[in-house]
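Researcher: We're teaching a course module on how sequence relates to structure. For the next exercise, students receive a sequence and then see the predicted structure as C-alpha cells, so they can try to spot secondary structure elements on their own. Here is the exercise chain.
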Amino acid sequence: MTAPQTMTEVGQLVRSAGRVVSVDLPETIADVDGYDSVDDSTKTELAGQTMLLPRRLSIEQRRTRLLDRLKHDYGIGHADVEFAADGTIEYLAVGSRPAGIGPTLAPGSVAVAIRADPAPDASPGDAVRIWCREGDSLRRVAGGELRGVAGDVATVAVDSDDARRLEADDTYRLVTLPRSPGTERELVSVLRAAPETVITRPITAGDALDGATIDSLPVLVIAIDRGGLDESGQLALPAGETRLEAGDVAYVLGRPEALRRLAELEREDRSGEPSPTAHPQER
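Model: And here is the predicted structure for the students to work with:
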C-alpha cells in the first residue's frame, strides 16, 4: 500500500477509518449582530469549506471544536453556529472585536503612556493619582487607572480632558489609592472585554417584546431606559418579573447565539408562533 503523500490523502485515509466526520460550512456566512464585521475575504474563504471533526462527539462538543478552529485558524473572535439534529450546520455567523487596550476603555477615557514610578506592588486595575514635581513641591495632575508597567513607563487610563495635561517629557509619580476604579468604568471595561456584547432593543407597541417579562428572554437585560422611574429615567438590572413596555429601550447582554434567539422570537411573534413568555431564559 502506498503511503499518503498529501494532507488531502491523509484526511481521506483517516476518514475512511471512521475516526472523523466531514462538516460542511454554509455557503453564506452571516455577521453577528452587535460585533464588528469579519473581512469579506475571510468569510469567502470559509464559505462552503469542509472541516474534519472527531466522529464520536456530541453536537455541543462539535460546536466547541468548530468554534476553537475558527478562532485559532482564522482569527475569528466570535461565532454563532447552529447544528441540525443530524450534525450538519444550518447557520453560521461570525464577528470580531478590535484587539488591544482600546475595547476595554470606558467612554470618554483614553490610555496614555507616561514616565512614572508606581509603587512596587501596584498592578493593572489599581486606581492611581498622577503627580508631577514643580520645584520643591508636588502638583496633582490627574486621576486614573493603572493598566500596565514596563520599566519606567506606565500606561494609565485617564479622562480625555486630563490627558491633555500630561507632558511627554515629564516624569510623574503615581500614588496608588486604597479603592478600586469607579463602578461604571469597571463595568464598562468588563463588558467590552467579555465574550458577550451589549446591544439596544427599542420596544414598540404590539411587537414581540411588548409585555414580555425580563426572565422570559434568552438574554440578560442590564438596564431599561424608561422615563419617570427616577431622575435618570433608567432602571438598572430590573427584576425578572418586570415587563417591557412600548417606548422602552432595553439594554441587553448576551452571546451571539442568545442575541440571535432574541431576533428569532421577534420573527416568530410576527408569524403567529409562541410569544417570548413561552421561552425559558438561556444566557
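Model: If you want an answer key for the exercise: Residues 213 and 277 are 7 Å apart (CA to CA). The radius of gyration is 25 Å.
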